[in-house]
From TrEMBL:
Originating species: Podospora pseudocomata
Membrane topology: Multi-pass membrane protein
Protein name: Digeranylgeranylglyceryl phosphate synthase
Cross-referenced Pfam families: UbiA
Compartmental location: Membrane
Location, primary (coarse class): membrane
Annotated InterPro entries: Prenyltransferase_related, UbiA_prenyltransferase
PANTHER family to which the protein is assigned, alphabetical: CHLOROPHYLL SYNTHASE, CHLOROPHYLL SYNTHASE, CHLOROPLASTIC
């Protein structure tokens, strides 16, 4: 291999590793669950009332899986590049997540900005090519609002994230069902219901990050209302939404016993395991729990 070729391969390898480190902590807890939402919705199809048009075959859904995952991955990367490069985020990550690329010294904020400038047009072009332009453009708008206008430090933080989740999930569903189908009113309602779950329970991720959030004066639920109130609200909401989603899909007790049981375990942990390390483990269980809710269309009735 020639020297220019080796240099190119080395550069691509380095950037790939850096980009992965920007999204690593969110890939399994954000990109993968959103992908699952779209694939399960497509698999349930018209029998669950989510899709108008011919049901996609299992083979078609599997063929679209890489596109759905890619959509979630590159839009997540754009968000995280914007999110992790500000001075406030760097200071927070030094306290909460010192292994991330910028606080660990692997890349500078300026180089991160340059990467963002280059990648954002590519992301917009892909969103247009995948026929999810509306959702993709709104995702980038909310990313700018959250990161560059610092709305992520305001009381609107959870609302922005819940809306963004809805846009990611809706785009994932549209990609999974294919261009010849459309999402029904019930499909939009299901997407909105999951966004409500996110809105009222996502502050579980803030329990483990209170030290860094306090340093940057971020207005999170635990810091605004107190750790105890945040935990009580969370314990109630995970149990409530487990039952509400089961009711939405008219599930039998066998179908919803597992998510309800896991929500009870999460509620117990939130109230009794209050160390940052335990909160991180509970947060991962929450990610599993809300992914399990996505299976509702497979077992429910329209």
């Amino acid at each position: 291999m020639s020297s220019p070729a080796r240099s190119l391969v080395s550069s691509l390898t380095w950037w790939s590793r850096i980009f992965w480190e920007f999204v690593e902590s969110d890939f399994l807890t954000f990109a993968v669950p959103n992908t699952i939402f779209g694939l399960i919705g497509a698999a349930a199809g018209s029998s669950a009332g989510l899709v108008a048009g011919p049901d996609p075959s299992p083979v078609d859904i599997l063929k679209r899986y890489p596109t759905v995952l890619l959509f979630n991955a590159y839009n997540l990367l754009i968000f995280n590049l914007a999110n992790q490069r500000s001075p406030e985020s760097i200071a927070e990550d030094r306290a909460n997540k010192p292994w991330r690329p910028i606080p660990s010294g692997k890349i500078t904020p300026e180089k991160t900005r340059q990467a963002l400038v280059c990648l954002l047009p590519v992301a917009l072009w892909l969103n247009y090519s995948f026929n999810v332009w509306n959702e993709g453009l709104l995702i980038q708008l909310f990313s700018w609002y959250y990161n560059d206008l610092r709305a992520g430090d305001s009381v609107f933080r959870d609302a922005i994230l819940a809306t963004s989740y809805g846009l990611f999930n809706l785009a994932s569903l549209r990609l999974a069902i294919g261009p010849h189908n459309s999402v029904t009113h019930r499909g939009h309602t299901w997407t909105a219901l999951i966004s409500a779950v996110i809105l009222t329970t996502m502050h579980i991720q803030d329990l483990k990050d209170q030290e860094g959030d306090r340093q940057r004066s971020r207005k999170t639920v635990p810091l605004l209302f107190g750790d105890g109130v945040a935990r009580l609200a969370l314990a109630f909401c995970v149990l409530f939404w487990s039952c509400a989603c089961a009711s939405f899909w008219q599930l039998t007790w066998r179908s919803y016993a597992l998510p309800v049981g896991l929500s009870g375990f999460i509620a117990w942990r939130v109230l009794t395991k209050r160390e940052a390390r335990e909160d991180a483990r509970t947060w991962r269980l929450w990610c599993l729990w809300h992914s399990m809710l996505y299976a509702g269309p497979l077992f429910g009735r329209a």
